[in-house]
Amino acid sequence: MAGALESIKEWPVATKNYITELQNEMRKVTWPNAKQVRATTAVVIITVFAFAGFFAVVDTILGRTLIRITDMLSK
Asked: Which among 58, 38, 40, 37 has a CA at the least distance from the CA of 48?
C-alpha cells in the first residue's frame, strides 16, 4: 500500500516533467509552409485517384473473367 501512495504523490511531478519535455520537443518540430502543404496534398489526391482507377480496371477485368469462367463451367 505504501508503494501506491508514493506513486500518487509522484504523479504531479511526473506530469510536470512530461509537459516540460513535450514543450521542448515541440520547439524542435519544423512545420511545412503553405506551398509544401499544397504540393504534398496534390500528390496524395492524384495518387489516390490513380490507385482508384487502377483497382477499378483490375476489378472489372477480374469480374468479367470470373463471369466468363462460371458461364463456361455451367454449360
From this structure: 40
The residue type of 19 is I
Looking at the structure, tell me whether residues 45 and 71 fall in a common domain.
yes
Confidence (pTM) = 0.58
Query: In whole angstroms, what is the distance from residue 37 CA to residue 29 CA?
Result: 15
On whether the CB atoms of residues 32 and 40 are closer than 8 A, the answer is yes
* Grid cell for residue 9: 504523490
Range of the domain at 46: 32-75
Separation of alpha carbons 44 and 59, rounded Å:
22
- pLDDT tens, the chain, 75 aa long: 556 667 777 888 889 999 999 999 999 999 999 999 999 999 999 999 999 999 999 999 999 999 999 999 998
Question: Domain check: are 69 and 40 in the same one?
Answer: yes
